[in-house]
Write a structure and sequence with these properties.
The chain is mostly helical. The protein has one domain (about 20-145). The protein has helices at about 1-15, 20-25, 30-40, 40-45, 50-55, 60-65, 75-80, 90-95, 115-130, 140-145. Helix 3 (about 30-40) runs antiparallel to helix 9 (about 115-130). The chain is globular. The two termini are about 30 Å apart. The structure holds heme C.
């Protein structure tokens, strides 16, 4: 019996990579986050968007144009997770459960067309980040930094 269940578990682990992603912290940028962001975010944060430096230099212009900073690579994205703009992904995507005002972050709406899709994609982001803190870079402790997962690939 014991042997049987080990076999079953091994099969699930081998075959169920992406299905299990959420609950096992196996979410990676390449396999899950980038493909989802291509669908949900790149219309405004894609290849034709400015770098974060260009964006910061003229935020007003880009925001009026509904263009956000470019987030098309792993490096560009983690800047907003635990880099110079740490917590930006979490503050903007949170559904209101962790924000001081109880309101969702202003990018939460773009996570999907339905409430269900938004919940699913928020969960995916949460699993990938591994440590859903809304703190800014200056507030992050060494312990916070250790808790981030943000795996690029398997
Ligand atoms: C319709 C256009 C649009 C879509 C789609 C969109 N965004 Fe944005 N995003 C913007 C604009 C414009 C800004 C800059 C204005 C602001 O800060 O609200 C922004 C800002 C941000 C910021 C803050 C950047 C900073 O400088 O700190 C983050 C993080 C972010 N978006 C993440 C996302 C994610 C993740 C998605 C997909 C789930 C997404 N956005 C989808 C337009 C968009």
């Amino acid at each position: 019996m014991k042997k049987m269940s080990m076999v079953a578990i091994t099969l699930v682990l081998l075959g169920g990579g992406s299905a299990l992603a959420g609950s096992h912290g196996q979410v990676t940028y390449n396999d899950h986050i980038k493909p989802m962001m291509e669908q949900q975010c790149f219309a405004c944060h894609g290849e034709s968007s400015p770098s974060i430096e260009e964006f910061d230099a003229d935020q007003k212009k880009y925001t009026t144009m509904m263009v956000g900073p470019r987030m098309t690579t792993y490096q560009e994205l983690v800047h907003f997770v635990n880099g110079d703009d740490a917590g930006a992904i979490m503050r903007r995507l949170d559904d209101g459960k962790n924000t001081p005002t109880g309101k969702p972050g202003n990018m939460n709406i773009y996570l999907g067309d339905s409430a269900e899709a938004r919940i699913k994609n928020l969960d995916l982001f949460k699993s990938w980040v591994g440590h859903w803190t809304l703190k800014r870079q200056a507030e992050l402790t060494a312990e916070d930094h250790e808790l981030f997962q943000i795996m690029e690939k398997r």
